TrEMBL record:
Keyword line: Membrane, Sugar transport, Transmembrane, Transmembrane helix, Transport
PROSITE patterns assigned: MFS, SUGAR_TRANSPORT_1
Record-annotated Major facilitator superfamily (MFS) profile domain positions: 41-465
Protein name: Major facilitator superfamily sugar transporter
Keyword set includes tRNA processing: no
Membrane-crossing segments per the record: 38-66, 78-96, 108-126, 132-153, 165-188, 194-215, 276-299, 311-332, 344-367, 373-399, 411-431, 443-461
Subcellular localization(s) per the UniProt record: Membrane
InterPro entries reported for this sequence: MFS_dom (IPR020846), MFS_sugar_transport-like (IPR005828), MFS_trans_sf (IPR036259), Myo-inositol_Transporter (IPR050814), Sugar/inositol_transpt (IPR003663), Sugar_transporter_CS (IPR005829)
Stated family: Belongs to the major facilitator superfamily. Sugar transporter (TC 2.A.1.1) family.
Transmembrane helix found in the keyword field: yes
Any Pfam family hit: Sugar_tr
Membrane topology, from the record: Multi-pass membrane protein
Amino acid sequence: MPDNAPRPADARLTTELDIELRRLEAAPDRRDSAHRMVALAASVAATGGLLFGYDTGIIASALIYITHSFALDSTGQQGIAAALNLGAVFGAIMSGPLSDRLGRRPSVMVAALVFTLASLGCALAPSQTMLILARFVLGWAIGATTQIVPVYVAELAPAERRGGLVSLFQLVFSLGLLVAFAVGYALAGPPECWRLMFGLGVIPALFLALGMVFLPESPRWLLEQGRTAQAVQVLYRLRGHHEPIRQELDALREAQDQASDTPGWSALRTSWLRPALIAAIGLAALSQLSGPNVIVYYAPIILSEAGLGHSAALLTSVGVGVTSTITTFMGIMLIDRVGRRRMLLAMLPFAALALFALGTLLAGTAPLEGMRLVFVVLALLAYIFFNFGSLSVAVWLVASEVFPLIIRSKAMGLASATVWLSDTLVSLFTLTLVHDLGRSGTFWLFGAINALAFFFVLRWVPETKNTTLEEIENSLRNGTFRP
């Protein structure tokens, strides 16, 4: 058989696709309803981000009271915070093969069920050990969600809307943080209030599980499984007209014709995939090593130790939640217009400057009061604005875009695991850094990492706006992916 001749499976796929597309030519134009369907699917799936944000953020408020309930030292505090992150590393890696086998949609539902059970486990934990175990299981569900949801939405969304729709995950994450900080502030007081704080996570978990029942499977996953007719029908629900479906499927078939025969994880060792791997994994690590969760996890404790009262410190966290939500919403509105790379390069220098200013303001041992307190809060919120509006918005989006279909789920799992492993390092060592370097030195260090992130983006991260997933794959294959 000549090298360029289609393989039997390819020929059968081509024939089935052509038959299904001819059937659609007489179907009515439903692009308006398809537009709404894509938005609905992205919104429901993004509820996983709400769970991610809530369970990440609630520890900042709950930890103050857990410390008294279980007489924790700094090691115990860091252990409870880090248990979720360690679980998320395993969840991210394990969920890639799971979503390849079961499908994106059922895998999200499994993660939502684990969310529900683990949230109850945290609320009812009788000891520090059981709380750490429940937080670990909760982390598994969060890690799985951060892998599956961005891939699912990226595979559903048209190229011109993909940035905003995938970034809904980060917006809802910010909303989850805001809800967590508001709940923490509202429930603060009784010694065991942290149990209700954790237990309320059951509500969005059940909403996610039920909502996914009514959503379609990823059409790209269906095609990969040979379920051609179902894939075309799902695409019709998502595009509403045969012309964009034909264009999309032609590009997908071309990518499949060029697909590597290298199976599983070993595909990531191929040289043509290396630029995507560097860009996605580098952004994943820097998104956490740049320090956003230092503020999320430990700002109340750090500010309390600097002289701010518990109530005022928790109220500052509410301000962090509001700021992160506003800036993430702005990022979603702009990312498909401005572009991923340009937003990162424009905002990261200001994130670094805000942390350098915060470190300078926290120098010395004088208690926070007067205008110094005002400037500390402003610098903290400015950092959240510029970091969440750049790295935090782009990290899940870029990782879900740059990998080809043959390895997308597993590679996204690796990127997600990198996020959580980096976050684990931050959560484990932040209080130790504060002890060894002081508050000022710690924030100066994170400011330097934000500056490093700017130069990484400049060198390694290309622009992917208004580009189909298959066009991105072709750029990898022909060596034009780099900036």
